[in-house]
Amino acid sequence: DEGIVIAIDGPSGSGKSSTAKGVARARDLRYLDTGAMYRAMTWWMLEHQVDVDDAAAVAEASSRPVITMGTDPSAPTVHVDGHDVAQAIRTHEVTGNVSAVSAVPAVRERLVAQQREIIAEARREAAGIVVEGRDITTVVAPDAPVKIFLTASADARAHRRSREVRSSDVAATREALARRDRLDSNRAVSPLTRTADAMELDSTGLSLDEVVALVVKLADEAG
Ligand code: C5P
Q: Which part of the chain is the Cytidylate kinase domain (predicted)?
């Protein structure tokens, strides 16, 4: 019996990570934050002084970093070449450069292949996995039995993200989010898009527990 795959896409600050972790914990599934993998790749490029606006240079370097993901939803981890980069990938510098790196096709090919391996392993060895990102419902796991497009109003997303990064400047956070969403939604390869068969869930005005309960219900219905 193969484990279930729950695919969650959505813009920055829509609550994907908290929702995905909550669902994985509730149903004893593994958890994969694909955004952390693009951030880890970006961190490595910055560390190695690769010009992230030079797509050819990024493509050429993209096979070098070894990115390792821990998929326990209660203690997810991310390592690059053995370094724990959980904190380092959340800096403004990484956040400001990740959209450029994630738009490079060679980067996506490599990380999507790794994501599919992690999913296959979780389906064999666990009850399944919750995977969150921008192209999970469209590219990484289009056959997932549960596909969700999680949204929230621009206001709700800016407030949520401001709390996460402990910034009191909600306007600046809103600007940065809008910029990243614009880049992620308009890039040539695997842009953030909602497909007709993904269930749209607007988390504005819902508590985290309510959103998690809704997704768990969909997963239970899917078998
Ligand atoms: O989810 P998070 O905001 O950490 O993602 C960081 C960035 O990684 C996104 O802004 C996007 O550029 C990229 N990303 C992507 N495809 C995914 C997940 C994230 O391109 N599946």
A: 6-219
